[in-house]
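re: that chain from earlier
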Amino acid sequence: MKLLDHFLRQFSYNAWANQEVLNAIDPDDATSQSLYLFSHVLSAERLWLERIRQQPQSLPVWPRFTVEECKRLASEMGSSWQKYLNEVDSSQLSNEVAYRNTKGERWTNSVHDILSHVLLHSSYHRGQIAKEMRAQGKQPAYTDYIHAARQGSIK
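^ sequence. v structure.
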């Protein structure tokens, strides 16, 4: 499997997992830690795509979105990542992206490393959300990669 195809598949999984989390979050609990963490996941996904595209940051890193706002942003980000990956040439994955982090520090990373970070960062926080939901006696989403693969939910 080519690296670009790998990332297309991984971001397909990421979009599926984000949707599963959205389905599990209580829409009536607007102040939940789970919703706050998920808002961060989506905002960070947008931030990293903006950095790759050399666009200004459009959202705060730790926003407080409603479930409806998360639904819109999750759909947008799933489509945006797929669009980006369908437009990029595999040779561009090694391109360097210069940016300032949220502390104002200058950094440079390859597109490949940024894509890997986005996927791992989102997965990390989805795990935190699952832990938070269990602590509240709620059933978290089952977002294991292999579960999505078994269901045929990954393109």
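The CA atoms of residues 13 and 146 lie 10 Å apart.
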